[in-house]
C-alpha cells in the first residue's frame, strides 16, 4: 500500500496549482504585460467579448467613481456603457509587475479619452493596481482597481 500512496502524493504535488507550483519569471512578466496590452487593444476596438476573456470567472473590477463590479456580465456591461459614453483611446503603461507562484500584481498608469456624443471631450488619467492569477497556464485578471487623478466629472445644467 505504501508503494502506491507515495507515488500518488508525488504526482498530486507536482500537478498542484498552489503558490509554490513554479517560479515566477520573465515569461510570466511578459505574459501579464501582453494581457494588459490586449485589454487596451480590445477596449479601443470595442470588443467586450475579448475583454471578458482576459478575466477569471470570479473577477472583480473597481473603476474610479463607480460601484464595484463582480463577474463577467457586470464587467462586460460596464465596458459597453463606457463606449456608449464615448470612451476611447485607452493607453496602459505597466510600471511594476511581480509575483510568486500562480499570483501576480501589476501597477502602472493609464489614460483614456471620453468623447460623449452630446458633450465635450474629456481626458482622464490615473493609476491602477491589478492582480492576476495563472489558471491552466494562462494569466487572467482577477482584481482590478483603477484610480483617476482627476475629480469626477460634474453634469452641467
The CATH architecture can be given as: Roll
N- and C-termini, Cα separation? 79 Å
**What share of residues is helical?**
25-40%
The total domain count is 1
- The strand line-up of the biggest sheet is 2-1-6-5-4-3
Classify the secondary structure makeup into a structural class.
alpha+beta
SSE pattern = HHHEEHEEEE
Biggest sheet, in brief?
6 strands, mixed
CATH class: Alpha Beta
Mean pLDDT: 87
Proportion of residues in β-strands: 35-45%
What radius of gyration results from the CA coordinates?
19 Å
Task: Please count the helical segments.
Answer: 4
- Number of E-state strands: 6
- Low-confidence segments: 4-20
- CATH topology type: Nuclear Transport Factor 2, Chain: A
Q: Rough shape?
A: globular
Features:
single chain, alpha+beta, 6-stranded mixed β-sheet, Nuclear Transport Factor 2, Chain: A, 157 residues, globular, 6 strands
Describe the structure.
With 157 residues, the protein is of the alpha+beta class. Helix content is 33%, strand content 39%. Strands 2-1-6-5-4-3 form a six-stranded mixed sheet. The N and C termini lie far apart (79 Å). Residues 4-20 have low confidence and may be disordered.
